[in-house]
Each structure stands twice: as structure tokens, then as C-alpha cells.
Design goal:
homodimer; alpha+beta; 6-stranded mixed beta sheet; 28 strands; 20% strand; aminopeptidase (chains A, B); protease (chains A, B); metal-binding (chains A, B); Creatin/AminoP/Spt16_N (chains A, B); Xaa-Pro aminopeptidase 1 (chains A, B)
């Protein structure tokens, strides 16, 4: 990896920062955040502006360029990568270290008095704008919105914004028509006494209209906004995608409909002016509902007194609770995914000893097996295929420079998943193709105990996910071990593999209470720098639990694993398991046998079936 | 309980709300919060203004009186009591119920346009003022500070503010001199670049100067403020308490001292004008540190740009970490407390069958035994002595109207504690003087499992208490049971029995990470309305834990019980315990035997010693 040479680029950027064609008055600093106009986690190439200007292409980072300086804030995952990818024009600001200033404090320390700090108002979330603007203002500076994105003005070979065809999902996949989703949304709006709802997150637009796209890699979404009124529906979307007869039929664009279900299709770029028109026409007490993470530009389109901001939108919350059709789809997707992984692990067992299987080969093979399954669309994230010390890099992705060959002497960690038309998967298995050491088995078993503690937990209806996080760590903590990431995230249904508003983490960001139908991952781990990584991840469905008593009639919940891939018993030190834990493993493996075994049989994959049967032999009781 | 007749009082209050002698312009509403000027949890009789105006004397509640209405907001613990104590002039606002408006929303709904809402700026915390003021302002009203407390103007027989003698604590109790505490505080101030620190909480003033008082029942504090500069110390305190030679000597008031340790004693009432003078004399960049819960009046004394507000003060955090002298004091206090409780339980066993022991008699007897112990000062809170259905009322305090007789047929719950000059105690034991039912034993055992899960937990340095809360509930959750309160609170060292900044609760209020030397309670429970209550509470000390490994060199922590009172084995269903849990009980009881047994022996309390020995027989293994 050699750093990107950015001297000319920065010179050019500093010119446009003063160019009256783009800025009313010169800006003394320009902020380049990571995101897109929808605050997406995964972004399209045309939105990788921070990577373009700096060379650093990790998933998180904010660049700030002043007349004298160029600085990059990123977190511990990316210190090394950022240092490698950026040239000496850049200062790396290591977030989380004591002496690293915040962006605001740094700006205050380097800017001349009365400076103007520019940012694209479509990229910066409103809550972040507010925080930053306050600090700058109190130091005598101004945060100003710069309408034209200044990076775009100098990015001559910027890729086009993707505009790929849409997929329509019928009732067998979604369980609820888009009309019924609109009705439910309007009833939530009526409850809160708001007249308008602005859909800004891409997965929320996709979910609402039962459409999918492929504008962003790994995320089956498409660039669009929507504004829902009590009697109107506006969809802001570009290209000839609305010419597709299947889409027109799906959205009933050519049917005679009650006016409140008639969808008005408008250009993607017209969202701001349309929203400003809505904002200008509001009568007193007519509120407009937005996510508090919506962009500053869209938030400002609505006069302050008329805004109704919440951290989670009603769509985000409704989307998290999967209905029967979605749940069944997720089950099917996970069975197919398990078939692919049984094939892969069987293949790896035979091939690894030959010394020709690298991390990249293994990742490709995993994709190949998955792509053979029905309704496969694409991967749901970049496969983490890591062996030995690479396994300890939590967000590792094999590239030629780091690509390591799998062997019988190292632990192999595979964290991978796919998008199927009926569901999204995400599974991690950690295995050894030789003989694991007693220490490796010990660590693996603690992680397994944590995985089981969450998976088998029974807890009251309404419990927030962060209250379960310590269950996953307790066995590790007892021995002085731990892992430095959360335990689980929400998973979409043929949507983003990471979604809100629920999760399992020691971080107590406002997570919504768990309820039956929600789907999260359960993925504790243990990582030893320079040596190995262990993680055991299932996607699990929140289901009602039967309990002996029922305090205050609240009801109880527990989890049902949707992922049905054997957990390598060779890695387990059975002596460290309680009887309850041993039974859990055996019952889990019994279910893998029955459910995935039947599918392997049906698909005629006999060798993988034999592998499955061998790998799911019950653990013997140890005295 | 008959309600207080408030018609005349309210008439009178409404008059002063318009009287130019007290208000510049009439106020259309007046808020009467619960607290005192120090945001104390326990308050002196002269500060019980809300109880005076309404009749409702629960520990939490806010009254608002307008020209037409009088309304009282309180929480679920007090719905019944408030309804009984208030006459028909008052509307009860049940907090936590869906349809109950917030105070702000209610004010907006009842007030005429452009109203002024008055409140005593010394009683309302700054953060609450800010929240309330914002909502009122956006609805066209004004929140205004009313200097003279309007309740005090109509409260003709208001008790005097207490002004009791002080107790000086020498190094053997405190471990650190007040001078060294000032030095440490100033170094924290220097770290944050603040020039002044304002001590507003009563327990923080007491801790800082190694003084105690008895102005507030159960809390060994005295009314005072302090303002610490880098070179000055001001103590605001009334009465002739500073004439006491012991106090003068302790504070070195008559010694020749370096000027930066010279304490300037000022009248309690002069804090505002002195602080305003400090505020007026600040140079740029000179910040003043205040708790964000300090009163609006004191916060406003410092111009906004000069304020440095934090949720927890450096004193609050330093006070929470007990030094060796304090820890040893707490140990001694808990041994003495255990002696008193062994005496009590032995006495109860003999007396309860006679049918003459009521809840009040038992509480008084507990106090009597405690008062026989060395350095006993007073109780640390109102004893919760409750039998049968009264045990299910979590904040129960026996009064003649509810006083129930202990019997061999009901569970008895005693939650009590004391202030000794060397430490503060708080212990709950639940017992049966006859034969508990299988169900009662089952519930008790789940609570015990939760208690042990917290007490024996091993967790990394820096873990926040809320991450341990679920450990206390897991056994109950497995059976569909739970309890609706937190698991633990910080405990002062001969100070308030409830103190911040740490605790163990499902509520994720910003609690500070646990560290060795902190002291918290571990008190899970189970309550069945109308039937019984179970709680098992020890005060525990955070100590370093030895672990097999040491991830990232972070070190691990666990708890050591300071409370050493037998847990009634008769109530335990041994079949429900794991071997580890059984061992925990046996080792705990062994320690009670050794430590408390030796003290009982030393005090010649042979009958109580025999009771202790019998009650700490090891649990047998069950197959």
C-alpha cells in the first residue's frame, strides 16, 4: 500500500474553498465526512469523497482541510491503514486517545478569528451540525452550509451515482403490502399528531415500498427519498426505473387508485425544493416527522417550530419486527446458507492440507457455494476470511498484501453472509483443520459459553438488548478475558445486514426494547493480537418464552437460532461446559442435522451431508 | 389518614403570587419542588414546603399552583398515599401513566397567554430549569426566579433551619486530612483548567472538611456551602458552630497557615452574593466548576461562558473510592451491626411466637441493639420492618395504621442500617419464624442466586455497574419473575446511605465505572403484591480479583461482602443451587462465624453467639 499523493488535490480544493462560483464568501475550513445524503453505513463509490481527497478508504473517518492543514479523524480500527494510505500532507487524529482533540476543538485551535467552516449540508446529520455549530459559534466562528459539494467540483473522474434496476417483492416475501405499510405509518403519524413523514434512510424507503435495488454494494437499496402526507405519497427517484412495467404494476402507478395511495414520482434531486414547499405551506400545529439523523439540509427545510424529530423513525421500528412471511423467508435463507457452508467446510477440510487455499480462495469458494443457492442475490458484506494472526484483526478483509494460506496449524475464522431474495444471513464460525492447543480450546469454549448464555437467555418482554451483553462476557470475565466489540446487531430481511433500532452491546446507545419478531446477531469473540481470533456468530430470532410463572403478566422472551451451521466440536473443551450448555450444543446440532440435513439430502449434496452428520455427533458427558 | 385542608393556604399562596412585596410582576403559576437548596435526597423539616402546602409528605413530588388549579406530580410508589393526604383542591398527576401530562405540558394547557411561572431559584436544579424554561418559552410563557420562597412567606410556624453541633473526624476515621483533600481537589481543578470549584451537595462539604453534622435526619450532614479557589477556601456556615474549640482546632482557624489553606468562614446566606462577586471578577478563560445539578440561582451567578458543569463533581468521585482507613472503618461498623442483628434475630425467634412483636416493636428493638454498639450515632434511614403483605410494599415504613404483628405464618423482611462514627450500614434479611412454603423457598432461592451472581461476579476494571444488573435477575427471569427496582446503590462512609456516582441498575443513568475501594449495595428481591416480599441485601466492597489471564493488562474486580449477617438457610431450597452457589453460602457463613462470632464472644453475647453458630451450619450437598 503506497499513500495517495494529494498535494495537487488539496491545492485545488483550497482554491475552490475561495472560489465565489461555489461559495458566497471564502471558507477557511472544509469538512469532508464519510457518509452519503442518507447517512448510510455502506456507501456508493460516488459518495467516497473522503477517500478521494485523502486516500484513506476505511469505513469511518472525517477529513477537515484548512488553508494550512489537512487532518483525518478515525478510530482504532483504522490507525494503521490510514497512516499507510495518506501522504505527509495529512495529520492523523487518533480518536479515542486522550490527547486527540475533537474536530471542533482542533478547528478552534487552528483557525484565524471569525472563520467560516464549510460543509455539505446534505452529508452532515442535523444532530452533528447542531453540536459542531454550537462550539464553533461560541469561539467566534461560523459553520456554513456549502450547497455544491466542493469535492465533487474537483473530482473530475467521479463515478456516476448508480441507478440500477429495481426488484419488486410480492406478498409472499414481505407479508404486508406497501399500501398497508402506508396505512400503518399514517396511523403512527396520527398518534403523534404529525401531518408529514420524511423517509431519508435508504433501507426505510426500500422496506416501505417493498422494493429492492443494488445501488450500494451488499445493501439491496436504491437512491430515493419519500415524503408521506396524510393524503399524498411522493417518491423521489431517478432514472428510467419507474418505466419498468413490473415496478409500475407493483406501485399501481397506472391504476385508478384512491388519491391517498396515488404515488407521485419526482426526480431524486427535487427533494429539497419539494420539502421546502411543504415547509412553507404548513399551518400552525402541522408537524413534520424526521429522523434526528436526517441531513441538515432536509431538516432545515422545515421551520424549527414544525419539526418532530426522533432518534428512531416508526419505519425503523416497524421494519425491525419481522412478520411471519419475513421470518419464514429468513429461515429459508439461513437453511440455504447453511448448505453452502457445509459444502465449504467439507471442501476446506480436503483442500487445506494441500497448502493451496488462501484466505481469498476460501472467501471466493464460500461465495461460489452460496451463489448456487436459490434466490441468491449477492453477499451481505465483505467476507472476513482470516487465519492465524489475521483473525485477531476484528474488521479484517483479505487483500493480496495480507493474504495468508490456511493450514493445519492455525485457527481459521470466517465471518460471512449473503443476500437472498427471501432473507439476509450473517454467520461466523471458527475452526481448526489440525489439532487445536488446550489454550485455544479453552478460549473457544469461553466464547461458546457466552454465545449460549445469550442465545438461551430468558428475559422479560421490553428488555433492552444492552442488558444482555454481560451474559456473553461472563465466562470470559471469570478468567480475566474479554472482547472489545458489541455482542450483536439487528439484521434486515433481505435488507441491510446491520440495522437499528435494537442490538446487544455494552454501549447503552438508546436501543429499543426487544420484542418477538426482532432479529439480531449473537457474536461474542476473543482475540489475541498477533496470534488468533475466535468468534461464534448466529443470527437469532426473538420469540416468546414459556416460563413457570409470569410476573405482572409481562410475558417473557428468548432467542431461536436461525443460523444452523455446526459449531466445531473439536474446538470445545467439554470439561468447561455445564450440563445445560452441553445439552444446548447437542440440541442445536440435532436441529442442524434435521433441518439442514434434509435440505442437503434434497439437493443431493451427499458428501456435505456426511460432513454435517459427523460434525453434529453429540458431545459426550465428561466426568 | 385524613387529608390536609388546604383551601385557606392556597388562597393565601395565590395572594402572595400577586403581591408586589414578593414578586416584581404577578406570577400565574408557582412551582413547589421537593428538594432543598442542596438537591438533597433527605431534607430537613423546614424544607418540607411541598408537604406543607399540599399535605402530601412522600419523598418525591412536585406541586404546581395556578390561579385556578393545584396539581401534584408523584410516582407509582405514592399514588395511594398522595390521594389520601391531599384534599379536593388538588389534582393528582400520576407520573409514569400514559395520559399524565408533564408539568410543562400541563402548564402550557392551563395557563393564559404570556404567563409567568415562578419558582425558587435555589430549589430548582439548573438542568431542570433549562428543560422547563425551554418548553415554556416556546409556548410563549416565562419561567421566572422568585427570590423569596413564597411558601416560606405563608408558613407562619415554619420550623427553624437546624444548626446542630459538628463532629470532627480525625485521620484514623478519614485516612486523609482535609488539607490533602483540598490539594487533590485543586490538582483536579488544574487538570480541567478551572480556577474555582463550588461545593453545593451537603455530603460533599462534610466529606471535604472531615466534619459531620446532624441537621438532616439519618444523614450526618450540616447546612453549608464551600467555594474553593486555587488560593482560597470559603466555608459558608451558620450558627456558633465555628466557636467550638474542637472545630476551630480541626480546621486550624486560629493557626498560622499558608494563605491557600486559610479557611474564610462566611454566613450560609451569603453564598449567592459571594459567588456573584467571584463571577463578576473572572478574567477570560477562568472557569468555575459546578455540578450540573446545582441550583439555578448559584449556576446563574456565574456567567455562562465561565461555567464548567459536570454531572459528577471530583469530590463525588473521590468520595466514592474509600481509602484504607475508611474501608477498615466500614468493616468495623458492619461487624458491630452484625452483632446487633444477631441479637435481634435471636430475640425475635423467642418473642415472635408470643404474638406481641409488631413491625414497630421489631424496628425499635433493632435500633436498641444497634445503639448498644460503640460509636453508634443514629439510624442511616427509616427502618423497613414489614411482615406478610407489607413486605411487598418496597418503600414500606411501619406506622400505627399499618403496623402488623409478626407471626410464624408470614415472611418477615427487615431492611435497616445505622450510622456509626466509623461507617454506614444498610442490610436486608428476609426470614420465616415458622415453616416457609415450597413456593416461598423457591422465590427466596432465586433471589439468593441473583445476590450471589452479583457478589461473586468477576469483571474488568472500568466496568459500569449497570452491566452487572442482569446477573442479579437471571435466575428470576428464567422462571418469568423479576423485581421493579435497581440492584444496588453507592454507600457513604459515615455519610449518606445513598450516594453517587456508582450503582447497579438496569437504568443506564451515567454511572461512573466501578473501581477498587468503591462500596455499593447488592440487593435483589422479589415481591408478590398482597402476599410477601423478599430481599437479600449486603453492602459490598469492590476489590481487585485474581484471574487466570489478564486481557490487555486491564485487571479485574470483584466484590467482598462487608455485611456479615447470616442468610436464613431455612428459606433456601438447596436443590436449586449450583455447587458453586452452595459453596458461596457456606464460605460466607463461615466468615460470619469467624468474624462476627469473635466479636459476640468479646462482647460476652453468648446467646446470640449460639444463634449465629446454629444459623451458619453449612448447607449439605443434595443429590
Amino acid at each position: 500500500m503506497s499513500p495517495k499523493i494529494t498535494t495537487e488535490l488539496l491545492k485545488h480544493l483550497r482554491q475552490v474553498m475561495k472560489n465565489p462560483r461555489y461559495v458566497q464568501e471564502p471558507v477557511q475550513a472544509y469538512i469532508v465526512p464519510s457518509g452519503d445524503a442518507h447517512q448510510s453505513e455502506y456507501i456508493a463509490p460516488c459518495d467516497c469523497r473522503r477517500a478521494f481527497i485523502s486516500g484513506f478508504d476505511g469505513s469511518a473517518g472525517t477529513a477537515i482541510v484548512t488553508e494550512q492543514h489537512a487532518a483525518m479523524w478515525t478510530d482504532g480500527r483504522y490507525f494503521l491503514q490510514a497512516a499507510h494510505q495518506m501522504d505527509s500532507n495529512w495529520t492523523l487524529m487518533k480518536m479515542g486517545l486522550k490527547d486527540t482533540p475533537t474536530q471542533e476543538d482542533w478547528l478552534v485551535s487552528v483557525l484565524p478569528e471569525g472563520s467560516r467552516v464549510g460543509v455539505d449540508p446534505f452529508i452532515i446529520p442535523a444532530d452533528q451540525w447542531k453540536r459542531m455549530s454550537k462550539v464553533l459559534r461560541s469561539a467566534g466562528h461560523d459553520l456554513v452550509p456549502v450547497k455544491e459539494n466542493l469535492i465533487d467540483t474537483i473530482w473530475t473522474d467521479c463515478p456516476q451515482r448508480p441507478c440500477k434496476p429495481l426488484i419488486t417483492l410480492d406478498l409472499s416475501y414481505t407479508g404486508v403490502t406497501w399500501r398497508d405499510k402506508i396505512v400503518a405509518l399514517r396511523s403512527k403519524m396520527a398518534e403523534r399528531k404529525v401531518m408529514w413523514f420524511v423517509v431519508t434512510a435508504l433501507d426505510e424507503v426500500a422496506w416501505l415500498f417493498n422494493l429492492r435495488g443494488s445501488d450500494v454494494e451488499y445493501n439491496p437499496v436504491f437512491f430515493a427519498y419519500s415524503v408521506i402526507g396524510m393524503n399524498t405519497i411522493r417518491l423521489f427517484i431517478d432514472g428510467d426505473r419507474m418505466m419498468d412495467p413490473a415496478v409500475r404494476e407493483h406501485l399501481q402507478l397506472d391504476s385508478t387508485l384512491e388519491p391517498e395511495f396515488k404515488i407521485q414520482v419526482l426526480p431524486y434531486g427535487s427533494i429539497l425544493s419539494e420539502l421546502q414547499a411543504v415547509g412553507a405551506g404548513l399551518s400552525p400545529k402541522e408537524k413534520v416527522w424526521l429522523s434526528d439523523k436526517a441531513s441538515y439540509a432536509l431538516t432545515e427545510a422545515i421551520p424549527k417550530a414544525y419539526r418532530y424529530l426522533t432518534p428512531y423513525t416508526p419505519i425503523c421500528i416497524a421494519k425491525a419486527v419481522k412478520n411471519a412471511a419475513e421470518t419464514e423467508g429468513m429461515r429459508r435463507a439461513h437453511i440455504k446458507d447453511a448448505v453452502a457452508l457445509c459444502e465449504l467446510f467439507n471442501w476446506l477440510e480436503k483442500e487445506v492440507p494441500k497448502g493451496t487455499v488462501t484466505e481469498i480462495v476460501a472467501a471466493d469458494k464460500a461465495e461460489e457455494f452460496r451463489s448456487q443457492q436459490k434466490d441468491f442475490v449477492e453477499l451481505s458484506f465483505a467476507t472476513i476470511s482470516s487465519t492465524g494472526p489475521n483473525g485477531a484483526i476484528i474488521h479484517y478483509k483479505p487483500v493480496p498484501e495480507t493474504n495468508r494460506t490456511l493450514s493445519a496449524n492455525e485457527i481459521y475464522l470466517l465471518d460471512s453472509g449473503a443476500q437472498y431474495k427471501d432473507g439476509t444471513t450473517d454467520v461466523t464460525r471458527t475452526m481448526h483443520f489440525g489439532t487445536p492447543s488446550a489454550y485455544e480450546k479453552e478460549c473457544f469454549t469461553y466464547v461458546l459459553k457466552g454465545h449460549i448464555a445469550v442465545s438461551a437467555a430468558i428475559f422479560p418482554n421490553g428488555t433492552k438488548g444492552h442488558l444482555l451483553d454481560s451474559f456473553a462476557r461472563s465466562a470470559l470475565w471469570d478468567c480475566g478475558l474479554d472482547y472489545l466489540h458489541g455482542t450483536g446487531h439487528g439484521v434486515g430481511s433481505f435488507l441491510n445486514v446491520h440495522e437499528g433500532p435494537c442490538g446487544i452491546s455494552y454501549k447503552t446507545f438508546a436501543d429499543e426494547p426487544l420484542e418477538a419478531g426482532m432479529i439480531v446477531s449473537d457474536e461474542p469473540g476473543y482475540y489475541e493480537d498477533g496470534s488468533f481470533g475466535i468468534r461464534i456468530e448466529n443470527v437469532v430470532l426473538v420469540i416468546p418464552a414459556e416460563t413457570k410463572y409470569n410476573f405482572k403478566n409481562r410475558g417473557s422472551l428468548t432467542f431461536e437460532p436461525l443460523t444452523l451451521v455446526p459449531i466445531q466440536t473439536k474446538m470445545i473443551d467439554v470439561n468447561l461446559l455445564t450440563e445445560k450448555e452441553r445439552n444446548w450444543v447437542n440440541e442445536y446440532h440435532q436441529k442442524c442435522r434435521e433441518v439442514v440435513g434434509a435440505e442437503l439430502e434434497r439437493q443431493g449434496r451427499h458428501e456435505a451431508l456426511r460432513w454435517l452428520l459427523r460434525e453434529t455427533e453429540p458431545l459426550a458427558r465428561v466426568q
